[in-house]
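Contributing: when you submit paired examples, paste them exactly as shown. First protein:
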Amino acid sequence: MQLNNTCQKHKTADSQRVYCFCRDTKSTLVLDAVLQHVTKLLSSTLFLFGLRSEVLDQLISHRSSAYRVSTDGVIMNMQLENISQIPIPNRLTVTNLKQKHVETVVQEWPYSGIFSDCKEWVSDMIKQNPSVCIENEQRDPVAWILQQDYGCIGMLHVIPEYRRAKLGSAVTMLLMEKLLKEEDYLYSAVNLDNKPSLAFHERNNFEYVSDFSVGFVVYPYEDGLQK
């Protein structure tokens, strides 16, 4: 069991966002005890990502107040040989996401309503993590993607009138190249009910990581283990 080295976290108004990774269902009780200790240290509810679906099922069975906030997701990775260059029209400019783009990114991300601190969170990720943005001649963002703070690429969006130009594939491949240079992981987490995103990743030669799905769970503090 690994809690993503020292437990990465990001504070929200109501909870702490924690990224932990555990594949072994035999470790669920130990994980539950560790998370209880963390909630006491932080005096806060936790928002978890990174746990295998089978581990989540057992964790929720031990901690009845814990609950999923969305369907689980699959992990898909990119092999080096599948990274390709996608032509971009000359009238468009490739750049990085900037602070002026925060509100637009938050507004277009369909899951932003889950997080009370989404604007702050996105702002921090844009400051700290690799990203790619394509702007039009008016310097308005028309396509973008970034690396989220748990390592996955995400928040991909293309403005509707630009969706025939393969800009989603273009920004994805450009970000893959950045992450490759930094010797970082090349992977994405996609919700199982997001059929367009699954199809997009398949078209761009992402490969499913077998037998590994993850979920998003709210984990409140309770005094003592439930039997």
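Second protein:
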Amino acid sequence: VIFNTWDVAYVRDMAAAKKWLNDAEDVVEEMVEGVMAAHAGQLVKLKGYNVLLHRNIEVIKAGQVTILSGGGSGHEPAHAGYVGDGMISGAILGGVFASPSIDSVLAAIRAAAGPHGVLLVVKNYTGDRINFGQAALIAQTEGIRVATVIVADDCALPEGKGITGGRGVAGTVLVHKVAGAAAQAGLALEAVAAEATNAAETVKTLGVAMTTCTVPGSAPSGRLDAETIEIGLGIHGEPGMKQSPLRKCDELVDEMITVINGRAKLVAGDDVAVMINNLGGTPTMELYLVARKAVLAVAALTGTPPARV
């Protein structure tokens, strides 16, 4: 069982969010250029698409299942930051908070496909499911072996609520890791997909937002005032479980663990990994306060500290 807590905070004023931008319309293209400049020896860009592949993709696809993931930009280091040995083989980038196109996903599948097949790790959002799903169907008609795993780790919504159900959020990183390890170990596509599915069904997460997110070039939302937080606010600003006044760290972590454990149902002796994710907006000092309380809360449920934090 894997836990994650995250917190959203963006620099803002009363008029518009302050961001390092040239032109909002160019932010994804320029970000990709920056990623490639910083990691030129680790990634290759697929010509004509915002698809970033492992530098050794030709060797990898000849010897093992390849793993692709992706989604809207604006959630970095997702997803290009997770391309590497024992992780995903490529990342497909959409616009800011927008799913990558069917054409982009299909181009990535074709480039990454080898004799062992391709696993798609897809977060549970309507656009992602449609576009990845359609691309997978087209690839299969071309004779490419493709399997798909859907991640829906968010505990903010009641189970079964909404059209698609729980959202796919930070727990996807751990699914990448499990799938990547299984593929690197030489498991067949069906076995890699089974390991990833088990991880996706096990991981449970919840977020707390101090402020709302802001799309580059747009004015910030007034959804949360200076005294209000939102438990379970979505990573694109979707409604969460509830709003409340800001409370002490320990109180917030206790509530988050309670909600998460309503799904995880931990018992004495369970091995637990805790992931604390700040989504780029919370100081490291504060994250360690969250870690301190999360470790204590998990140990109270299982009888032992988490195996990994």
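If you have annotations for the second protein, write them as plain sentences, like these:
The first strand starts at residue 2 and ends at 8.
The radius of gyration is 19 Å.
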